[in-house]
Amino acid sequence: MRAKTGHEMPERIKEAGHGTARKSFLGLKSSFQHNLWPARLALMVTALVIAFLLGALFFNYGSKLFEDWRQNRLLHRAAALLQEGKLSEASQAAQELLGQHPDSLPALYVLAEAAEKQNLEEAVSWREQIARLLPKDPDSQLNFVSAALRFGKLDVARKALDQIAPTDRDTAAFHVVAGWLARAEGNLAEQEEQCAAAVKKEPNNDLYQFNLAALRIHSTDAEKSAKARDTLQRLSKVTPYRTGTLRALLNDAVDRNDLAEADNFAQQLQMSPEVTFGDYLLCLNFYRKLDEKKFRLLLEKVKPFAARNSSDLASLIDWMNQNGLAGDVVKWIDKLPAAQLGSPPTSIAVADAYAVVKNWSRLKRWTRITATAGWGDSEYLRLAYQAIATRQSQSRSGGTANTEFETLWRSAEQLTNEQPEHELALARLASKWELENESEELWQRVAENPPMRREALEALRRLYRTKNETGKLYDVLQRLHESSPNEASIAADLARLGLNLEQNTERSHQLAREAYDRAPKEVNCAVTYAFSLSRLGRNPEGLAIVQNLPPDQLHDQHAAVYVALLLAEASQLDGAQEYIAAAENGKIYPEEKKLLDEAKTKLAAASATPSSAISSTPAELSPTPTASQR
Fold it and tell me: What pTM, to 2 d.p., does this model score?
């Protein structure tokens, strides 16, 4: 064996080194590859996550773009359909949009507009939702109030109006809507006040000027009525208001008995393109005052014109019934073809004519021969007129007639089907023929319906006053005050009755003051507050109030009671005697009779006292107001 040389050793070592290096390299490579795989995996996962997120992002963005496009398409379609007058289709498109976006204001606007144009009550709920979403937008709130008023929801309207922020109330729009509410509640004083406020905010608005003038032309304030007359004369030359102003001016001229001016307005009204059959009836009112012969000629000309239309025929018969011409109606209808009398409004008017002339046998016959036709939804009125004819024609025959009347009347009530309009018509009929028990029951039911509440409560008020049922009367006055809290005359009546009955006296004193503060020149309010002050031991202050009132108004029998009491309390003998005489000259209420007796007692005591004060004369009681007082 040959020995290894020194030169070979390095080569071996080198080879060995190369092998080691290769092994090291392979090991390092293996190690690197082993370490690289998790990093690659992580990178791949990260890439997948990013790709997924980007995909989701693009998908969501795309979905949102699609949803926005779809929403805008539905909205544009609904708006276009609304514009074209396709209201049902517009509502359907808006409903679809609202199903996906319950608070979509554009969809709600379309639904509200479509419902209002179709005269659907659901408009109120749509307007309410808009108002809820826009609580600080006064226009949305007022639109909600207006919709509620349109569909007779007076309680809803008042609540919504009360919730409008004080800062948003000093606008013409607010005053206009508040005036509508006051009119619906029968509060003419409040309506006038709100109309005046609207005119003050926008004095150049002719519509506001017309509304205020149409109210004030009937005012007892000569200055107000004269100014209203001038405004209407100006607006009669403005086309949109011409016919309305002529109606108001004609009525005013007839009321003032200015026949020459009324003749001028009547001729202009008849030549107006917008003249209605009701306008011809206004002219008949005037011509009846002007000349009986001319009136009769005009009436004969109007009759055949009215006979062409069942509604006009019924209107003319109603007008004649109400103006003392029911006898003429009975003669006229005998000449008319039966076919012209067969519609519900005409059948009712004919029945009323027979009732007005008290021809009970003809009324019974009419209600029987028209039983199978001619009344339609008013069948309940046919039974009611038949019941009235039965009671009136057999009122002396005892129980049989009463039983028949009750059976017929109950059948009529049942046929109203609890429909407020039918109950109202039946209640009016019951009141007209003094059916006290029946009318009370009906008016109580009608009073639950807000649009008819005022008329119902006023009817109950008259009924209970006639029957002197003061407890029920007080309750009705409370309900009237609750429904129309700003009406000064009602507050005064409630306060005075409360003081007379010694019921809720503290509240009654407060109401008396509130009524006086609101309408200090109204005699009812001033006298009530003066009476309140006297009961509080402040008689001189109360007397000072009535001293500033017009003497002619104080001589009304009811006002005179309280003036006599104030004067008697002040020991002013002659003045008290004069007002006692004025009170006794008319019919006064039982509680006022007690007050008058109290005044007489005080007067007798004062007369028996040698140091009694010198009485005041009527002139001293009611001096001419100074310029500042006016």
Answer: 0.77
